[in-house]
Amino acid sequence: MSALHIGFAGLGVMGEPICRNILTKSGAKMQVFDLNAGPVERLVAMGAVKADDIAAMAATVDILFLSLPGGKQVEQVVLGDGGVLASGREGLTVVDMSTTPVGLTRQVEAKLAERGIAFADAPVARTRQAAEDGTLSIMVGGSEKVFETIRPLLAHAASDVTHCGAVGCGQVVKILNNMVLFETVVALSEALALGKAAGMDADLLFDTMSKGSADSFALRNHGMKAMLKDAFPKGAFPTDYALKDVSYALDLAELTGIKAHGAELARDRMEKARAAGFSEEYFPVLARLTDKT
Questions:
Q1: DSSP structure class, residue 126
Q2: Taking every annotated instance into account, which residue ranges of this chain make up the domain 3-hydroxyisobutyrate dehydrogenase-like NAD-binding (predicted)?
């Protein structure tokens, strides 16, 4: 792996620790780029090289990782003027670690293939701490050949790297994973409101539920650590990001012709939270919204 030349664009909450783990554990040459100077400077101090822009990386590296806010940014960076499609050299492999709509993901792959550029989608799951610790779950869509090329690098940032199928299938799993999480958080918010209204101690309610069939990661993490403490910090996974991701689930529902009633409810609750002024708060803040009959 040390002979590889890697580029990494998008050094946000998840991107920076992912990049750092790959940089420090792989021994590969790495160029980095972000609009924010802070993470670039930190990674350069660890041995990375600052790139002028993403186009410059696409023209020189072997593998280009993208960890961007969403599909809009991925579309611009890859297909926009002076983007990866225009600047990337034949033989380049692009790995999109962003959460991106399935339809767009497959469109991007088809366009890049025309230029001899390989592509995989590799969105991530689990928490910011997991990104720091290198214990993410990464879901990959792409050919067997591309998967085997990128798997050792992704393994530096994850304890689980799963080949989910052809291009787009990594995004399918990630989007549905988030959809189920969002719907579970809605259910937890209802359980919390109903339990408290009925005179139940909230901590005892969730603790006892965790010993039964309602137990889940969402209960222990989003429920116990955020909802019970009424702690919804900015800088975590905000309501606006959750709304973006649930919109991708609804896009997938439209693409497949299957109605996603639970996702629609989750979207409606998040939209209400945003309207209440909670667009930047950690998305379980929707627990603060209580509707009376």
A1: S
A2: 168-280
Q: Residue 168 in contact with residue 252, Cβ under 8 Å? A: no
Residue 293 is predicted with a pLDDT of 64
Given 72, 174, 211, 259, which residue is catalytic? 174
| 34, two tokens | 């972000």
In whole numbers, what is the pLDDT of the chain averaged over residues? 97
Place of tokens 């399918």: 172
% of the chain with per-residue pLDDT over 90: 96
Domains in the chain, please, with CATH? 5-166 (3.40.50.720), 172-288 (1.10.1040.10)
Place 1 in a pLDDT band, splitting at 50, 70 and 90: very low
Nearest-angstrom CA–CA distance, 222 and 169: 26
Closest CA to 243 of 223, 265, 271, 222: 271
Dihedral (C-alpha) 37, 38, 40, 44: value to the nearest 10 degrees? Answer: 120
Query: Nearest Cα to 78, choosing from 91, 88, 67?
Result: 88
Q: Is 225 a catalytic residue?
A: no
